[in-house]
């Protein structure tokens, strides 16, 4: 399996409701193949965005039953962000604990698909760009 496909699939799985750390994978692959930094960045950004859109789609299909009294602290926090900032809250879709929930809620609340996609991609790409910039500066 090539490093770009590995990066894409790892980032995709990490963005769904499954646990995973695509940042560690990016750093490992970057260490092995530094010349592929741009391809790895694109693969990570697209894979992570498509994984988040999977959660968005599940939310839109209504496959989530929300019982406000049973929400965890991170779920309540995500709901407050969505209620306050709407689609703009998806810039935080990369964030641990609340990112996956934000995408799920965005779909459930039927936020606009294309605006949601653009903001999810922007947030996730910015995270990977920052990580790459930090590595390059070392």
The number of domains = 1
Helix content, binned percent: 55-70%
Number of helices: 6
- Please identify the structural class as seen in this structure: mainly alpha
Shape: elongated
* Succession of helices and strands: HHHHHH
Q: What portion of residues belong to β-strands?
A: under 5%
Sheet bearing the most strands, described? none
Tell me the radius of gyration. Answer: 15 Å
Average pLDDT reading: 90
Number of strands: 0
Instruction: Give start-end ranges of low-pLDDT stretches.
Output: none
N→C terminal distance = 29 Å
InterPro entries: DedA_domain, VTT_dom
Organism: Shewanella jiangmenensis
Transmembrane segments: 36-58, 85-107, 113-135
Protein name: VTT domain-containing protein
Would you give an account of this structure?
- The protein has helices at 3-15, 22-32, 37-60, 73-85, 99-108, 113-137.
- By secondary structure, the chain is an all-alpha fold.
- It has one domain (3-137).
Write the layout of secondary structure elements.
Blueprint: H1 3-15, H2 22-32, H3 37-60, H4 73-85, H5 99-108, H6 113-137
Keywords: Membrane, Transmembrane, Transmembrane helix
Pfam family, one: VTT_dom
Transmembrane segments: 36-58, 85-107, 113-135
List its traits.
single chain, 6 helices, mainly alpha, 138 residues
Structure summary:
This protein has six helices and no strands.
């Amino acid at each position: 399996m090539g490093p770009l496909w590995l990066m894409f699939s790892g980032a995709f799985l990490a963005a769904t409701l499954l646990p995973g750390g695509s940042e560690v994978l990016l750093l490992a692959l970057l260490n092995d193949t530094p010349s592929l930094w741009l391809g790895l960045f694109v693969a990570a950004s697209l894979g992570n965005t498509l994984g988040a859109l999977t959660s968005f789609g599940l939310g839109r299909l209504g496959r989530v039953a929300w019982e406000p009294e049973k929400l965890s602290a991170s779920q309540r926090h995500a709901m407050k962000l969505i209620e306050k900032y709407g689609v703009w809250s998806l810039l935080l879709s990369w964030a641990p604990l609340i990112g996956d929930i934000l995408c799920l809620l965005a779909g459930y609340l039927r936020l606009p698909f294309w605006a949601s996609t653009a903001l999810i991609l922007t947030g996730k790409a910015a995270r990977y760009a920052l990580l790459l910039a930090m590595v390059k500066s070392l």
